[in-house]
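Re-running Pimeloyl-ACP methyl ester carboxylesterase to confirm reproducibility after the cluster update. Everything else is unchanged from the original entry.
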Amino acid sequence: MQPTIAVVDIHGTYKVHTEFYSSPSARKTIILVNGSLSTTAAFAQTVKYLSTQFNVVLYDQPYAGQSKPHNSHNQPLTKEDEAHILLELIEHFKVDYLQSFSWGGVAAMLALGQRPARIEKAVITSFSPLLNEPMLDYLEKGLASLHALDGVGLGHLVNNTIGKHLPSLFKRFNHRHISSLDEHEYRQMHAHVDQVVHLETHCQMECLAGVDIPVLFVNGEHDEYTSPEDVRVFAEHLGECKFAIIDNAGHFLDMEHKAAWQQCSEVLLSFLQSQPQRQTGYRAQLDMQHALAI
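Result of re-run:
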């Protein structure tokens, strides 16, 4: 399936490369939010199952991928900037659902906190509001590589930590991509990491009071960096959230092996296609433990 390519102007400030996968029978549209240092290519496996049921929107941040030639890179974007871009794209494409991956969850949660009227449900994958010991160690080592503009070292770091469960072919692609980024992309990531390592959490919990839609959090069973246990903190702050654990998977979920891809497909499609049951007067802490138990 070939997407429709467009460069969307965001209030004359940013120009964003977008890819729209149209599904002939789809009645809903979902937008996918990248993690750090990644591009639309990171969602190649996810699009395969989502596009069977929905129109799918992918985009590159202004500093990344195919958006880079259309923008100046004088200073790093903030997560608030990224949330604003996301909100504008939601309106532009008339989006119904949202899915984020990894650190894309920060911009996604900030955007959801502003209650975009169109969004009915959201899926936040491989994300945690807590910076646990393995994540802090990874970030501190990453800061050193980013400061030195050492893309080769950063590529090895990613593959040996959050990417350690990826197949060897994906690791090679990952390393080739990370080691060949432009200098401003390393500066962008350095600014973001430097900011979050000095916070107790890298998700501003006060923004969650505005989230009034069902949210599903999906984490890999073996992901020690954004662990299934840590993400349950969200149950204390959100009125309607569910949790799913993908068996025998790490941080990259549906990229890691066929069974994880199948489980992700089942979990996401089941959640997005189910009828919402809004709760009143109490916090719902529904549990979608393992994919096969749903």
